[in-house]
Design a protein that fits this description.
Length: 210
Amino acid sequence: MTKGDETRKRILDIAQDSVLAKGFGATSIEEIIAATDLTKSGFFYHFKSKNDLAKALLARYVDEDERIYDELFGRARALMDDPLQAFLLGLTLLAEVFADLPNRHPRCLVATSCYYDRIFDREIQEINRQAALQWRQRFRATFDEIAAHYEPHQPIDLDHLADMVSAVMEGGIMMSKALKEPAVLQQQVLVLRDMVKLLFAPTPPLRAVR
């Protein structure tokens, strides 16, 4: 990592801490500059504007999510040959990560604050759109594999189901913040896990009554 990369990372880390504490709108460039011991020109060398900073924080969140998904669902797939059981285990592992917010994944909360503070910016919208499409592709591939082994009990569009995974996670973050109940996100992921299990898992045969 070059010195410039280290400085950029330090700016993002300090901005992240501030956004977690009070939101993106209340985070000022001046306080970030003071905390990093940079000059204004030093800050603007890395980020042209506060909007540029928001884009960088969002992009870092997307990269972090991809890393987490690769790690958790990859670990689950290595432990389970069955694609359905592997996905259910992956969701359980993900729920454990979300149970310890913001300690284990603070960037999801930072990204939410950045997005809703800059919701009308087209570049921010595009970053969010591309991330949603990326996650749709990821989870659609998972559901294609599951559906090849298990016929769903109800007709369902697998693209819609893939989008639901992201919707539950993003919506769970918003519900957690609105209700000030961090456990909501974990609970929503576990409900999603149970719903997917009910949709695909084979129905056990009825026991004969003697």
